[in-house]
Amino acid sequence: MKRLLLFAMMCVCMSFVFGQKKGDKVVKVTSSEIRWWGYKVVKTVPTTHSGTVKLKSGKFTFDKTVLIDGEFVIDMKSIMAGDVSSQDADMVKLTNDLKSTNFFEVKKFPLAKFHLTKIIPLANSEYNSTVYGDVTIKGVRKTITFPANVYITQFTVVIESAKFSLNRRDFKVFYQSSLKDYFIKNEMDIQFKISTEKLDNENRTPVKKKK
C-alpha cells in the first residue's frame, strides 16, 4: 500500500514537472480598467447605461520572451452602474439588479474569467492586433475575438481593447420570465485596458520606474 501511494505521488510530481515549459516566466497585471455598456432596444443616450467592474487578478505567461497566453479573473461582485463614486438612487438600484438573479447572480457566480489564447497582428488598421480567447460568465464559456492595440516589450505587456460586444443571452444574463427583458438589447459592450506596469493616464504608456 505504501509503495502504491509512493508511486502515485511520484507520478503526480512528474506530471507537474513536465507540465511546466522550460523557461516559463509569469508576469502579473498591475494596472487595469474595465468598462461596460448596456442598452435599451430604443438606443439613445438616456437609455444607455454604463459602469465598471474590477479585475481580481491577471497574468501573462512567457516562454523565454514569447508570450504564450494570459489568464484573467474578474470580480463580478465589484460590478457597478454609473460612476464609481456615484450615490445616485437609480444607479444603486441598477447595481443591485445587476448583481441579483435577474442578471449576473454574483453570489452563485462571483468570478468571470478570460483566457487569452493568441494574438494575431493586423496591418493598416486602427488597432494593431486581433485578440483571441475564451470568456466564462455564469459558468458558460464562449470563444471570442476582438480588435486591440497590443504592445509587448520584453516582459511588459499593454493591451487596450476596442469596444466590443458580447451577447448577454449566450451567458444566461437576462430577466427570468419578465417582459422587462424585451426592452433590453442583447448586445452588451465591453472595453478594457490592462498592463503589467502602472500606466501613465495621459498617453497610456508604462510609467518609467525611478532609478
TrEMBL record:
Keyword Signal: yes
Transmembrane segments: none
Lipid/polyisoprenoid-binding YceI-like domain: residues covered: 24-197
Domain of life: Bacteria
Coiled coil: none
Keywords: Signal
Signal sequence bounds: 1-19
Protein name per the record: YceI family protein
Species this chain originates from: Chryseobacterium salviniae
Lineage of the organism: Bacteria, Pseudomonadati, Bacteroidota, Flavobacteriia, Flavobacteriales
